Amino acid sequence: MAIADDEFRCLIESHQRMVYSIALRVTGDPSTAEEVAQDVFLELHRSVEQLAGADHIRFWLRRVATHRAIDAIRRNSTRPEADAEEWEDSRSAEDDAPIDNISLQARLDELLRVLPEPMRVVVLLRYQEEMLPDEIACLLGKSVASVKSHLHHGLKLMRRKAAVTMKEYVRETA
Amino acid sequence: MKQPEAMSNEFEQELARAMRGVDPPRGFADRVMARAQSDVPVRAKVLWMSRRVRQWTEGALAAALLAGVFLGEQAHLRHQREQAAQRQFEQAMRITNRTLEHVQQQLWDAGVR
Fold it and tell me: Among A65, A76, A73, which Cα is nearest to A20's?
């Protein structure tokens, strides 16, 4: 038996923010993120009967959204990804704008977007979804050690990039 | 001056704050609902098409099977006819041979060498 329309709409409204945020931060492109998020909910519509309970649905949505978003960036391969050193060399005058002009949160979001994909996904799940490393490992089908390694290196790289582009902030906090 | 660990924690706290959820564009749920509702006839059409293809495939397989049976039967009949002709030829050769032997015996009896 298929899910009723009002029940399905309720599910979308409850989880659209989480699904869209994952898709947006993994792909870095709003239109691709919307496409991925819609596909995830359509997939949910087809298989919701096999899912038992709200927690299962939430876990399923996180997992499918993450994998579909990764598939989308691998398919498009348009995301520029650079090391901190490369980024430092290619910094423009715009990057030297005072930190007040661009919100700190937006700058951190930008730092996340240029991380290599495996690190970006792990950092996203850790800080957006507040998942623990073992939960992330389960969701991604990776070892806990691998997740911790990606998390450690991802944060390290973000801090290095922040030191390059957010000097004002670093000076203020130091 | 802050310790590196404190700076790291502060960085992570800022990161967690920066990673708040982002709302999808307005009308997202409506667009998903519209796609979900149009997804059903599409699936029905796919099933209908696959049934047509299945029927066509079944018909083709049945025709191929009938053609195979017919051709096999034809081959069997041809083989039977060939065997009968072979038997008739061998019978004719035996009769001819016996006739020749009989004639030769008569010639010997008449003293012809």
Answer: A65
